[in-house]
Design brief:
Length: about 160
C-alpha cells in the first residue's frame, strides 16, 4: 500500500533520517542513565538513584514514540547497538565515573539529545509535519528540563 499523508516522500525520508539520530541518541542516553542508576554511589546515592530511574523510565517511553514516528513516516527504525553507535552523537560511558561525573555527563548528554531534536525541526516544519514538530517540541522540552535538573543537582 502506498503512503500519502500529505508529506512528500523526500521530506519524509529526511525527517525519518533525522529522527533516527534522535532515536539513537535517546537510546544511548537511556542505556547510560540506566547504567548510572545501577552504579551510582556516594552521599547523594538515594536522590541520584531515584532521579536516574525517573529519567531512564521517561526515556524508555520516548524511544518508543520516536521509533513509531519513524515507522509512521514509512521508514524502518534503527534498532541495533551497531545502528545506534553509527548514528549517535552521545558516547557510551567507560568504567564507573564518580557520582558528580555521572551527573555532568548526563546533563551534557540530555543537551545533546535536545540539539539532535532541534536539528530535525526545520525539515519537519517546512514539510508541515505537525505531528513530528509536536513530538520534537516535547522531546526538546523534556531533555532541556532533565539537563536543568541534573545541573541543579551538581551545583
Amino acid at each position: 500500500m502506498s503512503l500519502n499523508t500529505g508529506i512528500a516522500a523526500e521530506d519524509r525520508k529526511v525527517i525519518a533520517e533525522g529522527l533516527s539520530k534522535v532515536l539513537a541518541d535517546s537510546y544511548t542516553l537511556y542505556l547510560k542513565t540506566h547504567n548510572y542508576h545501577w552504579n551510582v554511589t556516594g552521599p547523594g546515592f538515594p536522590q541520584l538513584h531515584r532521579l536516574f530511574e525517573e529519567q531512564y523510565t521517561a526515556l524508555a517511553a520516548a524511544v518508543d514514540e520516536v521509533a513509531e514516528r519513524i515507522r509512521i513516516l514509512g521508514f524502518p527504525a534503527p534498532g541495533s547497538y551497531k545502528a545506534f553507535a553509527a548514528l549517535a552523537s552521545i558516547e557510551e560511558a567507560e568504567g564507573v565515573p564518580s557520582a558528580r561525573e555521572m551527573v555532568e555527563q548526563l546533563a551534557a548528554d540530555n543537551e545533546a539529545v535536545a540539539r539532535s531534536a532541534r536539528a530535525v525541526f526545520p525539515a519537519a516544519e517546512s514539510a508541515t509535519d505537525e505531528a513530528t514538530v509536536d513530538l520534537l517540541t516535547q522531546r526538546m522540552a523534556a531533555h532541556e528540563k532533565a539537563a536543568w535538573m541534573l545541573r541543579a543537582t551538581a551545583a
